[in-house]
Amino acid sequence: MTTGPGEFFDLIRYGHARTRGDLQAVTGLSRMTVAQRVDALLSASLIREAGSDRPSGGRRPTRLEFNTEHSLVVAATIDTTHSRVALTDLAGLMLAEESIDLAVVDGPEKVLHGITEAIHRLLAQTDTAVSGVSGIGISVPGPVDPRSSRPSQPPIMPGWDAYPIAEYLHDAVPVSVPVLVENDANAMAIGEHSVGFKDCPSLALVKISTGIGTGIVINGRVYQGIDGGAGDIGHVRLGDHPDVICQCGARGCLAAVASGRAIAQKLTALGIKASSGRDVGDLLAQGNVEALRLTHEAGRRIGEVMATLVCLINPGVLLIGGPLASSSLLSGVRETLYPMSLPRATRNLDVRLATTGDMAGITGLTRLVVDKVFSSSAVNARLNEPDLAPAR
Ligand SMILES: [Zn+2]
Questions:
Q1: Residue 262 CA, ligand 1 centroid: distance in Å
Q2: Is residue 155 a contact partner of residue 248, using CB atoms and an 8 Å limit?
Q3: What residues have a C-beta under 5 A from ligand 1, the ion?
Q4: The model's pTM
């Protein structure tokens, strides 16, 4: 095991070592080497001494912790009808945010221009220099190719296929920090995992919005699949709807039958105005009887497909998230999921509504950015380059 400052940083960040004595015990290194590593991390402001402002005296060892105020993260979630841009500290604490009413169908230039302007407004509002940002995370409602980090044939994002989102933001903000692009359900799943389910080795989150997608977290990491298509269950074909044409061009997809868009179309046919998952969510909040009925029925169809996912990965937690997440949707999912799954696959399964609402995506993006920018290898590299020391 390499035990450079980066590995020390990991031990402190994840709470495996809280004092210099702990670090000595865990690594087996000498007191002097431990002191050198800790001093390097302290002078780079990557860690801080907790409680060091207390009057000295006594021999209580000083506690060390990750300095979550070292720098900031910009997190932006692009949804079908709107985007959200937030500035957070490294622990995911929201410092400022803004919602932008730009639809994903407006195309990448218009949406990313709006996001760039919002980033500058938030930085000005919090008196933060661009150099105080350590990374940018951005989520999109479609699959992302893990190799290129670009959208990969996204069915509900016309004009975004293979669009260089990271390059656009590097030029427009401008920043030299990493820009991570992730699928929205993946970002939400890791966000929920970070906040409430850290000890769960396998978690899935199904996001039901204008479309339907699933994020899968295994052993604390998002499972993207070879081409970024893992969890893209919205376009699983249901056998009994050959007449319904999906936005992806195929017939009978789950999203064409049970997504927010599908429900909005059914409501419109009944004379109730709705065009997006967000509109359906608003009607659910108002207790609209038809919206409740159709959402419950959609839940039943989603539960059928989730039964396969549950049998395949046997998760500990299955979360229902997105604007349609409601008790009527959840009860529909449960009605079909349990009878259609093997008892072994569900006996320890916790099926419930996502807990952090629309914060999950922002929290998840912050976590992904921090994991990348402050990985042990990145910290080791950073400490060999003194000019990369504290950004803020
Ligand atoms: Zn489809």
A1: 11
A2: yes
A3: 235, 246, 248, 250, 253
A4: 0.92
